[in-house]
Amino acid sequence: MWRRPRVRRLSGAGPPWQPRSVHSPTVPDRRPELQRRALASIAGLPAPIRELGEVFADAGHELALVGGPVRDAFLGEVSHDLDFTTSAHPDETVRLLRSWTDTWWDIGKEFGTIGARRDDLVVEVTTYRSEAYEVGSRKPAVEYGDTLEGDLSRRDFTVNAMAVRLPDLTFVDPHDGLGALADGVLRTPVTATRSFDDDPLRIMRAARFAAQLGFAVAEDVTAAMTELAPRLGIVSAERVRSELERLLVSADPRRGLELMVDTGVADVVLPELSHLRQTVDEHKRHKDVYEHTLTVLDQAIALETGPEGPVPGPDPVLRLAAVMHDVGKPATRRFEPGGGVSFHHHELVGAKLTTKRMRALRFDKQTIKDVSRLVELHLRFHGYGDGAWTDSAVRRYVTDAGPLLERLHRLTRADCTTRNRRKAARLSAAYDDLEERIARLREEEELAKIRPDLDGRQIMEILDVPAGPTVGEAYRFLLDLRMERGPLGADAAREALLAWWQARPHS
Questions:
Q1: Mean pLDDT of the chain
Q2: Annotated domain spans of the chain
Q3: 3-state class of 311 per DSSP?
Q4: How big is the CA angle at 137 (ends 131 and 139), to the nearest 5 degrees?
Q5: Under CATH, which architecture does the 23-183 domain have?
Q6: What share of the chain is helix, strand, coil (3-state, %, to 5)?
Q7: E strands, 157-230, where?
Q8: Region entry Disordered: which residue ranges (predicted)?
Q9: pLDDT tens, 369-421?
Q10: What is the C-alpha to C-alpha distance for residues 99 and 101, in angstroms, rounded to an integer?
């Protein structure tokens, strides 16, 4: 998978999202190159799209391709989300789309958006509009606009405020989005303060686009993010979570997360990440947990696989687990008498904090469960290098990880950020050995399908008891036995079960 090259931080330089001297005369003008890319991409628009423009034009309405698809065309990328804006109001848009295709939907009609499909093409057509949040409201108020230029002025960033009129393919760029694209800088069409005050979610979108596009962020934009970050409190958790998810699966999520932390946005959205900076120790008794976390994220991403591999990237569960794996450290930090520092049980505290935060952001139950479990298990491997793990311990490791095992492999490896080459090599070799043992046991015992040697029905027959809690206790006893000794066989398991039953106190 192609990834945009990471912007390396130079000595003495500011954050990677801060603009450099992009207007230096030694920097070549990229506009001609971008225009050539866009021309080739837009000229290749499918014929039905041109036809759609003619349908609206014949009815006396304007139609323009807008936003992401236009931006992506200049970057030489093909966008599969075709967004249009029009002078037609929603009811008229429905009528015109019905003459173009039989498949359409009005689920976004409240916000002026109508969707349609024709063969493999999916389009969304939105009436010219402006929107803003009323005081105390979590839902933006929408008002229809009159002109394409007015619609573009209410867009989030100038790189998304470019349009191509159809069917004549006229390029419209009233806010020099092309210049911002050439410079690689996020700017807003109107003042950043006004833009973010109208729609606070754009604060999150700034962080997301910094990560997705690898762009710097204009100084007035970062200033407005810092000033208005508390306004994110009026935005629904679902919309905030959606932007965070997009940031995490972008080309360079570290860039976006650093921007969120440095502007105080993370204090509102993901305070557990911000709090990691509290563990910075001026006496250097332990590593910088915040920087360590970002490095773990980078390394976890590097361990993702292609589509045919066990952890196809981008993997949001692995990436979020990397971000959250040490969030329990601030609450568990203790300075020991000998001058050391401990974080006892920070993985358990971190798992609880992760669950709480993800619930607040309205993640789905399975994702919450998976990420929290990875945080809980991320330290389990440590100590394996001492050679003390039995086959039973390996079985428990695999069973506890369950379907998350491949992600846990990668999170554990990514968690090694030591600069001590010998220590890093020793940890890597130990984990190689663990994976080899897992593979060997899996081949011998079908490790991923470990079950007791007797099932619930057999337990009830042997003990002559009905279904209930007693059967569950017996099942867990046999599972522990299976973990400890490996496969026993039905006869040996029966003898062990009866011995356990006789030793068990009966009322």
A1: 86
A2: 23-183, 287-449, 456-503
A3: coil
A4: 50
A5: 2-Layer Sandwich (3.30)
A6: 55, 10, 35
A7: 163-166, 170-172, 185-186, 216-217
A8: 1-30
A9: 999 999 999 998 876 666 667 888 888 888 889 899 999 999 999 998 888 78
A10: 6
